[in-house]
Amino acid sequence: MRADWSDERLMLAYRAGDADAFTTLYQRYRASLYRYLARQCGNAAIAEELFQDIWIKVVNARADYEPLARFSTWIFRIARHRLIDHYRRHAHHLPAQSAPNDADDDADGVDEMIALLPAPGHETPHALHERQTTAQRICLALAALPPVQREVFLLAEEGGMTLEEIAVATDTGRETAKSRLRYALTKLRQSLQDLL
């Protein structure tokens, strides 16, 4: 059963021609990869474009794929490089802290994401509103992080990556990745202390 296979085994099966293995990988990574992109660039349309490009790169790279690292490290490294290419091409730097009105513009996208989350039928509108408000606060706190800290935090949380894997994906040392993650967590705790 493919659901029990490791990501690396699935990618090797896909390399050998098993299209269902790709479908399983896509299902495993589509949400976390999209969230990583959307939170890094802050624009749903750009995130969708980059998301499609990354999966095309995975398809095109299948013949040369070798499991030298975890699949998650490999795909998030592709994602990071695609983000960098996008900003270079558009004469931007990696995203800086979002301005408050940028976050307001993204509120509709957050609302849509929250609407897609499954919720128990017994939740009241008040509880749903509180959850929405909390999600918006978290998104604003993430957007306020310096780009390198936000990137490391999202790779850890969305990508499920270890410090070693983050270091490989971001071309930094383990201690640098550790420091960035620690600073990100500290700033998030400070921003969200009333929710904790």
TrEMBL record:
Protein family membership: Belongs to the sigma-70 factor family. ECF subfamily.
Pfam families linked: Sigma70_r2, Sigma70_r4
Domain RNA polymerase sigma-70 region: 25-91, 141-190
Gene3D superfamilies: 1.10.1740.10, Winged helix-like DNA-binding domain superfamily/Winged helix DNA-binding domain (1.10.10.10)
Chain segments annotated as transmembrane: none
InterPro entries: RNA_pol_sigma-70-like (IPR039425), RNA_pol_sigma-70_dom (IPR014284), RNA_pol_sigma70_r2 (IPR007627), RNA_pol_sigma70_r4 (IPR007630), RNA_pol_sigma_r2 (IPR013325), RNA_pol_sigma_r3/r4-like (IPR013324), WH-like_DNA-bd_sf (IPR036388)
Keywords carried by this UniProt record: DNA-binding, Sigma factor, Transcription, Transcription regulation
Lineage start: Bacteria, Pseudomonadati, Pseudomonadota, Betaproteobacteria, Candidatus Accumulibacter
Protein's UniProt name: RNA polymerase sigma factor
GO molecular function: DNA binding; sigma factor activity
Gene Ontology biological process: DNA-templated transcription initiation
